[in-house]
Design goal:
The protein contains nine helices and six strands. It is α/β, with parallel strands linked by helices and about 325 residues long. This is Glutathione S-transferase family protein.
């Protein structure tokens, strides 16, 4: 058995099991905390424009979701954005893209500094996206599935006029799709790439492409996953698809097909890429450098592929 990239997230059969989210506070309209306070006794922080800082990596698909939703909803002035270096070392995500290697608002060099300030006993992996309270410097949440949902539902008073409704009134169908796509596609590519046994890898590989085949057929007669309207689930699928050929196909051995070889998924992915907030938030250089330079056990040479040509996305 080869060594696991993340030892604490590798199970005995060689399967990658993603760690849970340590900080699950929410910024909520019904928080009973007053301005500058928080959280209340239900771990709900007050909605306050200008108070919170969203920390992301442009390389990370989980963080990319929040970047897209923030932009689509027009929340750039309400929630500030911090971008970490795509190269994560043993100390975690670094603010080396900023002058003097410190986030200019939070004053910290590593995202881990905020984690330790909030929970000095925390020993898990430091993840993005993370929302930090600039008043106290404490982590509010790193619960990436909930972050984007709350941007849609809890920040409505601060969204731009004409902002899209990313969450339908009846969420049942979307929530089921989100779960299937998370299990088999969003997390499925990682279960391929971080597997340490042939059996675990092949099980993840089979589930991944079985789900992509289902999605390929679903998109045969509709522009978006739920019909004619862009929804949250489309954003969640897009951030995996846009990384597929550049990273997951080769680096994670998800190589039955390239995205460009799926007729409907490729048309769908390009349609999204060419929308505002999608393609203009994609940074293929940071994406490739992150994956190929931080997963030493998978790519020990540290060579970053030159291709594929990103111009295919604008055809």
């Amino acid at each position: 058995m080869s060594p696991a990239q993340f030892v604490k997230e590798s199970s005995v059969p060689g399967e990658f099991t993603r760690q849970g989210n340590r900080f699950t506070g929410r910024i909520a309209r019904d928080s009973t905390a007053g301005p500058g306070e928080g959280p209340d006794d239900q771990d709900r922080w007050p909605v306050e424009p200008g108070r919170y800082r969203l920390v992301v990596s442009l390389a990370c698909p989980w963080a990319h979701r929040s970047v897209i939703v923030r932009r689509l909803l027009g929340l750039e002035d309400a929630i500030s954005l911090a971008i970490v270096d795509p190269i994560r070392d043993e100390r975690g995500w670094r603010f080396t893209l900023d002058p003097d290697g410190r986030d200019p608002v939070l004053g910290i060099e590593f995202l881990a500094d905020a984690y330790r300030r909030t929970d000095p006993t925390y020993e898990g992996r430091v993840t993005v996206p993370t929302i930090i309270d600039t008043v106290t410097g404490l982590v509010v949440t790193n619960d990436y599935p909930q972050i984007t949902l709350d941007l849609s539902t809890e920040w409505t008073d601060h969204q731009r006029e004409g902002a899209p409704e990313l969450i339908p009134a009846d969420r049942a169908e979307m929530d089921e799709l989100i779960e299937d796509i998370y299990r088999d596609v969003n997390n499925g590519v990682y279960r391929c790439g971080f597997a340490t046994t042939q059996e675990a890898y092949e099980a993840a590989y089979d589930a991944l492409f079985a789900r992509l085949d289902v999605l390929e057929q679903r998109l045969a007669d509709r522009p978006y996953l739920l019909g004619d309207t862009l929804r949250e689930v489309d954003i969640r699928l897009f951030t995996t698809l846009v990384r597929f050929d550049a990273v997951y196909h080769g680096h994670f051995k998800a190589n039955r097909n390239k995205l460009t070889e799926f007729a409907n998924l490729w048309v769908y992915a390009r349609r999204l890429y060419q929308l505002p907030a999608f393609g203009d938030t994609v940074d293929f250089d940071q994406i490739k450098r992150h994956y190929y330079l931080t997963h030493d056990n998978i790519n020990p040479t540290g060579i970053v592929p030159k291709g594929p040509d990103p111009r295919v996305w604008t055809t």
